[in-house]
Specification:
This protein has a single domain, classed as Roll (Pnp Oxidase, Chain A), CATH 2.30.110.10. Helices cover 24% and strands 39% of the residues. It contains five helices and nine strands. Strands 1, 2, 3, 4, 5, 6, 7, 8 and 9 form a nine-stranded antiparallel beta sheet that branches. A hairpin with a 5-residue loop joins strand 7 and strand 8. It is globular and about 55 Å long. The two termini are 19 Å apart. The structure holds flavin mononucleotide.
Length: 188
């Protein structure tokens, strides 16, 4: 490590990201990320997902999806992904590379799956019952049951490429090495 590098258990990129989210807190689209992964057809696929927060006291990002979606099978076969996230207001880009774990109704982390489900808005829950009438969905949701196809995507980052497009461009690469984050400035 060079003199300018720093080391920490929770990445400083995470504090930087918390600040970016705070600066754009009035913009719903600031929580939309682009998730790229390999599909089960062996090709790269990219799509928008909503960032749902971090698992407490960790670097793990939470997203949700439906096990009936194409990305599900792809993620099971190829858990290596990259998120690209641009904050228009603060002119910052994060490219978060890492490995995902998909928590389904058959996984052991049922508590987290339940917690995330109950944190969702009614309209987000309704997406999982698109084939049913709205009144029926409202009733089902009210009962608190979780649809079988609901799954949580946990992303454990292994490297974060941060780019700030201010007057002076700044680029910082953070890497997880032996469970510790190392950060170094890159030019350009
Ligand atoms: C603004 C926005 C937010 C979205 N959020 C999610 C999400 O949180 N989870 C999800 O599975 N799909 C979400 N989607 C739909 C995905 O982008 C994608 O179209 C869908 O999941 C199917 O992707 P796949 O074929 O790669 O599985 C969102 C789409 C948009 C435009």
């Amino acid at each position: 490590m060079s003199k300018s590098d720093t080391q920490s258990v929770i990445g400083s990129w995470r504090q930087r990201l918390a600040r970016s989210l705070h600066l754009s807190r009035s913009k719903a689209h600031a929580r939309f990320v682009q998730l790229a992964s390999l599909g089960h057809d062996g090709r790269v696929h990219n799509r928008t997902l909503v960032f749902r927060g971090f698992v407490d006291n960790t670097d793990q990002l939470i997203m949700i999806t439906d096990t009936r979606s194409d990305k599900y099978m792809g993620l099971i076969q190829h858990p290596q992904v990259e998120i690209c996230w641009y904050f228009e207001k603060s002119r910052e880009q994060y490219r978060i590379n890492g490995d995902v774990l998909v928590i389904t109704n058959a996984s052991s982390q049922a508590d987290l799956r339940e917690l995330v489900w109950h944190s969702l808005s009614l309209s987000a829950k309704e997406q999982f019952y698109w084939y049913l009438d709205k009144a029926v969905v409202a009733e089902i949701v009210e009962q608190g049951s979780i649809p079988d196809s609901f799954s949580v995507i946990l992303l454990q980052p292994v490297s974060v490429d941060y780019l700030y497009l201010g007057d002076e461009h700044t680029r910082t690469i953070s890497q997880l090495v032996h469970k510790k984050w190392q950060e170094k400035p890159i030019n350009p």
